[in-house]
Amino acid sequence: MNEEKKINIRRLKTARDMGKFMADYYYELDEASKSGKQKIAWCTSVGPAEILRGMGFLTYFPETHSAMLGTTRMAVDLIPKANAMGYSPEICSYLTADIGAFVEGVSPLSRAFKGIEGVPKPDVLVFNTNQCRDVQDWFAWYGEKFNVPVVGVHTYRGVKDVTPSHITSIARQMENIVEPLEKVAGRKLDMEEFKHAVGLSRECSDLWEKCLAAASAKPSPISFFDATTLMGPAVVGRGTQKAIDAYNLLLEELEERVAEGIGTIDHEQHRIYWEGMPVWGRLSMHSKLFAALNANVIASTYCSSWIFSALDPDDPFNSMARAYTELFIVRSDEYKEQYIKDKLDFFNIDGVVYHDAKTCPNNSNCRYGMPQRLEDETHIPSLTINGDLNDLRLLSDEQTKTNVEAFIEQLEENR
Length: 415
Hints:
Layout: H1 15-35, E1 40-43, H2 49-53, E2 58-60, H3 62-71, H4 75-83, H5 93-104, H6 108-112, E3 124-128, H7 134-146, E4 150-153, H8 164-176, H9 178-185, H10 191-213, H11 224-230, H12 232-236, H13 241-260, E5 270-275, H14 283-292, E6 295-300, H15 316-323, H16 333-346, E7 351-357, H17 370-378, E8 382-387, H18 397-414
Parallel strand pairs: 1-2, 1-3, 3-4, 5-6, 5-7, 7-8
Helix pairs in contact: 1-13, 3-5, 4-5, 8-15, 10-13
C-alpha cells in the first residue's frame, strides 16, 4: 500500500466554467466597489441573500474569501495577526484569517484576479447565526471598520423537529431587517424581485442536489474534493439565473460520465463519506492520498449545506425561515444521526471520515460519541482525523496519512 503508484484523477471539464463564474462574480463586485454605482451587502453564506437581491444589492459572501485564504495557505501567517488583537486561537479560523488579512492589507483575490486589490467595501452587513455565533462578531468588527450598519437573524440550535413557532420567529426576524436594509438601499423591497430570487434559489438548490446525488453511481463521477470548489455558484450565486446555467452544464457532464461508466478515479474500491469541514489547504493532498488507496471520498454533509428544498416563491419569508432552519448544522444529534444514516445508505458508503476541526465545533460532529453510535448501528467503520479548516498548524500530515492508510486497510479486510 505504501508503494508509489500513478494517481489518475479525472477533472471535470465544467470546473473551468465554474472558475469563470467565480471570476465574473468577483469582478462585478470589484467594479461596484470602486465606482459606487451599485450598493453592496455582505452576507453570511447561509444568510437571507434573496431579500438582498429583492432590493438590488450585489452580495458578497466573506466565507468564500476565507476559504481562499485556506486553499492558498495564506491563513497560517494571518491568523496570529487577529490573535494579537484579542481574537482567541480557539475561535473560527475563517474569522481570524479574514480579519488578519484585512489588517495586513492582503487578499488572495489580488493573486487570482488581475486588477482586484482586495475585498469589496460594504454598504451593509447581514448575518444569520444558523452557522455559528462567530459570524455575528466577525461582521460586527467590519461594521465598525467601515462604519456601516450590521443587521442579522438569530437562529435556534439543537433543533429536532422544525415547528411552526420556529418558522414564525425566524420569518418575523427576516421581515424586521427589511426596513433598515431599505434605508441603505434607498429603495423598497420589490416583492416580485424577491419572489423571483427565491424561485431561482430553489431551482439552483434542486440542480445542486442532483449534481451531488450523481455520486450514488458506481463509479462516482464526482468526489467530495471536486464538490468543495464546484459549490461556489450555490453559495454566491443563489437567486441568480447564472448559477442555474452553471449547474445545468455540470449536471449534463456528470450524467454523461454516469452513462459511460466513467469515475473520478480509477479502480474505485472503497466509497467514503466525509463528515465535517474540508481542510482547505490540503484538498489536493487529501484527494491524492485517498485516490492512491483506491478510495473515493464521494459525498459529504458539508457540500449539502446549500440545498434548500423548502424554498417557495409563493411564500418567501416563511419558506426561507424553514429552509434556513432545516440546516444540518443547527439540528439535534438525533436528527443528524438519522440524516447521516440515510446518506450512508443512499451513497452505498463503505467508511466514514470525521474531521474534528479544532476551531469549528459546530461543524465537528465527532466530539460527543456520534461516530461510535453510528458505527454500532450501521456497522460501517469510521475514522476521526484531527485538523482544522484553515489553520494548518493544527494538522499533522504524517499522522493523517498513517491513519488513513490504516483505515483503508481495515476496509479491505472487511470486504
